[in-house]
Amino acid sequence: MNTHSIKVACSNCNLRELCMPVGLSDQDMRRIDEVVGGRRKVLRGEHLFRHGDKFSALYAIRTGFFKTCISSEDGRDQVTGFQMAGEIMGLDGIVSDHHTCDAVALEDAEVCLMPFERIEELSREIKSLQHHVHKIMSREIVREHGVMLLLGSMRAEERLAAFLLNLVQRLHARGFSQSELVLRMTREEIGSYLGLKLETVSRTFSKFVDDGIIEVKQRYVRIIDTDALRRIVTPADC
Amino acid sequence: MNTHSIKVACSNCNLRELCMPVGLSDQDMRRIDEVVGGRRKVLRGEHLFRHGDKFSALYAIRTGFFKTCISSEDGRDQVTGFQMAGEIMGLDGIVSDHHTCDAVALEDAEVCLMPFERIEELSREIKSLQHHVHKIMSREIVREHGVMLLLGSMRAEERLAAFLLNLVQRLHARGFSQSELVLRMTREEIGSYLGLKLETVSRTFSKFVDDGIIEVKQRYVRIIDTDALRRIVTPADC
DNA sequence: CGACACCTTGAAGAGGTTCAAGAAATGTGG
DNA sequence: CCACATTTCTTGAACCTCTTCAAGGTGTCG
Of all helices (H) and strands (E), which one includes residue B141? Predict the structure, then answer.
């Protein structure tokens, strides 16, 4: 396990606004540096944690890209999310003190380790941190509601369009292009997340290309017509 | 709005083990009574809260049965869950300070109102309450992972079997039968939750009846062969 | 350069949806 | 308390979307 104990400081981190509450006093900011118990590098393909592992910390992504997935006893597999810089992983482990899903790096990554006991300790003292933790968990619940809507009521094209828009929007919030992206996951992983087979994902990409909505070269995607994607997700009602 | 301010006490509530942390000192128990800011009756068909409402409190169900659902702009609708006695609603509202889904009573119900500010206040002082709140949110996240697996990778029969087993298990934990239940929701609401059309739900019920697995008379369901349902959800792998 | 993982595309098939009609339960007003 | 309207549920038949199976192409890495 590749854990560094280099002293790291949220107060200097350029991802601060993504992970941490804003508007803290200098004093609280310095205290919040204490929630980070070190960093850990995770190479592409490696697990950050596995289903069944003892839960001890939340992880904030500094660099890299992850997927989280659950697998049922009979070998069914479901990607439950894709996570990028500034996002928090591990919330699933709190309820039973053990992780219930796997977190796998889809590219070389580095995460900040935040021992949960320390988070709880500090949240008891810093109101804004407490509320921030609650918001992060609530945000995850709301995100999953959106995925349920997608899986429960959208057709393949709608799912993929929604997926692309969501990815590019999150990347844009991190300073990347609004129209270009490099997929970090395979067609199969996209399919698992969207409740589709990889062939359907591939075919749907091809259809979007035929329709002049996107350009695809393997993992590279350029969005030519964002509005068309939006219209696919939300068909204009009469 | 039907809000009573009768002083109510978790310490005397027989649902305590479902809503609240266990193993509290008498003193903490008395303090926890303070999180409940009153009760509210909700008649069948009425909303407890709506998408867009200002978030101010979490709700613990005392009696009755709810559904929560989100609706996208274009009129798509998705039931995100069914909630029964002892379960907590409203977590979706924390992140944006406004609710993002609707909570509708499927039968006359009564809920305990727990102003969130008060919850946060008390969690800063009572460690076990703090951890309990975290667990409740984490449990919801894990539950939703399960729904994603169901929606993303199961077929109609598997979904309905999983749904019935889940319902009856939760009812059993509340002292009801392991084999009989009365559905509080329509076929359409079940379908929305499971990502199926109401006709498919109805047909699948009929198939289970033909196979001698369950007995159905409208909303009343008797499970004859629980193991058969389990085998449907988790096909024995070779 | 060869092995391997990943992606694309076609054709056939299955599972679920849609449309339609009728039956059963529930609620409402006289 | 009954008649009627409404909602809910069931079932059939045709259709459509997505899956499955199969084959070949592309890219990547040791």
Answer: helix B127-153
**DSSP E strand boundaries for A50-101:** 57-71, 77-84, 88-89
Q: Which residues of A touch B96 (CB under 8 A)?
A: 142
* B58 and B89 Cβ atoms separated by less than 8 Å: yes
**How many angstroms separate the CA of B106 from the C1' of D3?**
28
Helix, strand, coil percent values for chain B (each to nearest 5): 45, 25, 30
Give percent above pLDDT 90 in chain A: 80
Q: How far is the CA of A103 from the C1' of D11 (A)?
A: 46
Residue B139 CA to residue A27 CA, distance in Å, equals 33
Assess whether B41 (CB) lies less than 7 A from strand C. no
- What domains lie within chain B, and their CATH numbers? 10-150 (2.60.120.10), 155-233 (1.10.10.10)
Tell me if B53 sits within 8 A of B99, measured CB to CB: yes
User: Measured from the CB, is A151 under 7 Å from any atom of strand C?
Assistant: no
Minimal CA separation from A2 to chain B, in Å:
27
Identify which of B72, B65, B74, B59 has the alpha carbon closest to the alpha carbon of residue B100: B72
Residue nearest to nucleotide C19 (CA to C1'): B199
Q: What is the mean pLDDT of each run of 10 residues along chain B (238 residues)?
A: 62 88 88 92 95 97 96 87 97 98 96 97 96 97 98 97 98 95 97 98 98 95 97 78
Closest residue on chain A to B193 (Cα)? A152
Question: Distance (Å) from CA B183 to C1' C25?
Answer: 15
With tokens 């349902």, the residue in question is B229
pLDDT of residue A238: 46
Q: Which two tokens stand for residue A62?
A: 């500094």
Q: Please, what is the end-to-end C-alpha distance for chain A in angstroms?
A: 57
Residue type, B62: R
Residues 6+ away with beta carbon under 8 Å from B132: B20, B21
Confidence (pLDDT) at A11: 87
| Strand ranges of the sheet holding B220-223, from the earlier edge strand across to the other edge | B180-182, B220-223, B214-217
- What pTM was estimated for this model as a whole? 0.95
Query: What's the confidence (pLDDT) of residue B201?
Result: 98
Q: Which of A151, A159, A237 best tests the B interface by mutation, with the highest count of B CBs <10 A?
A: A151
Pairing of the two strands A88-89 and A220-223: unpaired
* B195 interface with A at CB cutoff 8 Å: yes
> Around A180, how many Cα atoms within 13 Å sit in the side-chain half-sphere?
5
Residues of chain A with pLDDT under 70: 1-7, 236-238
How far A117 CA lies from chain B's nearest CA (Å)?
A: 10
